[in-house]
Write a structure and sequence with these properties.
Layout: H1 3-36, E1 48-54, H2 62-71, E2 77-80, H3 82-87, H4 89-97, E3 101-104, H5 117-133, E4 140-141, H6 150-158, E5 162-163, E6 168-169, H7 179-189, E7 194-199, H8 207-224, E8 228-230, H9 232-236
Helix pairs in contact: 5-6, 7-8
């Protein structure tokens, strides 16, 4: 590689590292450490779990999921993709009517690691604007893939939003995972204080349908174990 190109490549890598990769690593480390401090502390001996759903709303899956949560009297947290929310305003309304928390999960699920400052700012503002048009004041933000950049961190701060990551995933978005396997992972990985990240939209090969099937199996197990279902505001502060 000629020296000029090599220097340009090094400079680009340094920018990427300081703009998005290191901030993302810092956020992940912080999340890991926070999750090691049992949320039990905050909930004074209660056994709590926080169920959260990303990537929706989706008219094919979200209504069935909302039915299931209602049948079980469970409040959850939904991190909506704003463009999907715009297409399904009745589902956002239903979430709120049924006592769920509605947070934001970006405008259209682009990865912040590789988004420039201007796009990051404009997409963030557009997403918040869509949610406001849906009468939804979003306070909690979950960045796509748990990745951020400095501009995104600045926007969250400017809008007074709290970032919510997770402590448990079950890889439920995968096209090749069965509902039984998702349920098995959830039973094994979840404990008191867990913030569980599942998906009611996107995913491969109709993945959210298997997420719902898995929840049908595992919710009764959690309930009989005495778990209480809390929303993100209870875990991350109001
Ligand atoms: Zn997502």
């Amino acid at each position: 590689m000629p020296d000029k190109n090599k220097n340009a490549a090094i400079a680009a890598a340094a920018v990427l590292l300081s703009y998005s990769m290191l901030p993302t690593a810092a956020v992940r480390v912080n999340n890991y450490i926070t999750n090691k401090i049992p949320a039990v502390k905050k909930s004074a001996g209660r056994k709590t779990i926080c169920l959260s759903f990303d990537d929706g709303p989706d008219s094919r899956y979200t209504p069935e999921l909302l039915d299931l949560l209602k049948e079980n009297d469970i409040s959850a947290s939904f991190f909506a993709v704003a463009e999907s929310a715009e297409k399904n305003p009745e589902l956002i309304q239903r979430m709120k009517d049924e006592g769920h928390l509605v947070g934001l999960h970006s405008l259209n699920h682009r990865c912040p690691l590789f988004m420039g400052m201007r796009d990051t700012r404009e997409e963030f503002m557009r997403a918040v604007d869509i949610m406001h048009q849906l009468d939804t004041d979003v306070i909690y933000f979950r960045p796509p893939w748990g990745t951020i950049n400095l501009q995104l961190a600045g926007m969250m701060h400017k809008y007074g939003m709290k970032m919510v990551l997770w402590s448990v995933m079950a890889e439920d978005w995968r096209g090749d995972i069965t509902a039984e396997e998702i349920a098995r992972r959830l039973r094994r990985r979840v404990h008191s204080g867990s913030v569980i990240c599942l998906h009611d939209g996107r995913g491969e090969n109709a993945a959210p349908a298997r997420t719902i099937q898995a929840l049908r199996k595992v919710i009764p197990v959690w309930k009989s174990a005495g778990y209480e279902f809390v929303k993100a505001d209870e875990v991350y502060g109001k």
